[in-house]
Amino acid sequence: xxxxVFFCVLLFYFYGIRTFNYWRNRGIKNDKPLPYFGNNxxxxxxxxxxxxxATGLYKRYPEEKVVGFFRGTSPELVIRDPDIIKRIxxxxxxxxxxxxxxxxxxxxxxxxxxxxxxxxxxxxxxxQRFGQSFSTGKIKSMFAFITDGAEKLQLLANDISELESxxxxxxxxxxxxxxxxxxxFGINMDTLGNDSSEFRKLGKRxxxxxxxxxxxxxxxxxxxxxCRYVNFLAPELxxxxxxxxxxxxxxxxxxxxxxxxxxxxxxDLKERGKISVESLNLKDSNGDxxxxxxxxxxxxxxxxxxLFFGAGFETTxxxxxxxxxxxxxxxxxxxxxxxEIDRVLMKYDGKITYEAVNEMQCLEKCFYEAMRxxxxxxxxxxxxxxxxxTFPEIGLTIDKGVKVIIPIQAIHNDEKYFYExxxxxxxxxxxxxDMKSSIFLPFxxxxxxxxxxxxxxxxxxxxxxxxxxxxxVEPSAESKQYPEPDPMGxxxxxxxxxxxxxxxxx
Length: 506
Hints:
Elements: H1 2-16, H2 41-44, H3 50-60, E1 66-71, E2 74-79, H4 82-91, H5 120-130, H6 136-160, E3 166-167, H7 168-185, H8 198-207, H9 211-222, H10 235-251, H11 262-271, E4 275-283, E5 289-294, H12 298-329, H13 331-346, H14 354-358, H15 361-373, E6 380-383, E7 388-391, E8 396-399, E9 403-406, H16 408-412, H17 453-470, E10 471-475, E11 500-505
Parallel strand pairs: 2-9
Antiparallel strand pairs: 1-2, 3-11, 4-5, 6-9, 7-8, 10-11
Helix pairs in contact: 6-7, 6-17, 7-12, 10-12, 12-15, 12-17, 13-15
């Protein structure tokens, strides 16, 4: 009996370390991994975000172009070299078109069948339909929702200015959630007027990590086949989003109604019938890509709505609030931005319009610099989708399914690429050439770059302009010039304790 138990324990141990020679055999440096957990124990137990893990590796191996990593027992590769990054995201995109967040090839939970998380042909089919959904014309038609939200934001900020300290991250999250409600679903979410709004609670829950969420996420990475039917997302989230979308669809009789909001766009896409594209991975007998088709169903509408709701408010609120936080600690730049806002808005009768925001170049520079210092999405991930791939720069060959991590946050704060990286220098972005390709990547790059980048930027800038037109932003007694990153972050980054500041009427 003892020998059987000993043999089982030994077998269990060796199964948990079976892949750990992967990078050693290829001459790639990596930290020593733990059985089953690899190098990712801190992230599995929510003591470090993935961006924080990648940044740590980036800094520990300053002379390497790539660094090995194990998420559970799966080998991954952290990329430190801009030329290799460009190759992955742009030049050789056909080898890395998958993001790789889903741990199983075929079993994908319903809400993750969206443009951000989907891979392969599902991603390509959705992306084809969404190509024009965030065009200049569509954004202009949505901008009335932003103008209305900016005016409401000023009214709420007026009340908050009586307080000695307030979390500007929470204020901007209420602003962006209100926009998502109006522009996404045609609903008055009243998160600006009510900080306990059900929709604000839903938004918080999407990015909150409970013990159940932590256990589910770790289990899916460590035992992907065994836990393929375990969902990353909590059941109550799926129920809430499904209920919300179904109510809106039912109210509109499942047809577009001319509101030009996100649901309307998707209902219009659905009415166009089947989507068809050339497959990324299926070939016919001649070796040509097969044509694949898909119906744009209510389930897919719900999944895209989940993405629009969650990612839309979180990334925009993080970046807009961090910009205001930086301006609170850099009053000279705050004054420059306020003077520009005052000058531009005089031309537009004080209204924050699409044209007005696009004229605010000083504000834009500050926005970009805040995204450099603390990108809301701190890392990118891609998965090798071909049988093997060789990086010509280093002669390294990886196998299909190996994921690569691009540590945006670390690159943005590397003195090799940015002079005095810890300081707020908006003049880094004086001209287009300052937007360094494969180095400054707040929206990603290549075919899988953020499709709603322009809308998110304009929404954030309009909110910042609304605040600074009426108020000064100053550090409060609770403020920290260098706020602590939240280790609970999954894809989007945030801060422990928020970003408390003091608003003072101009």
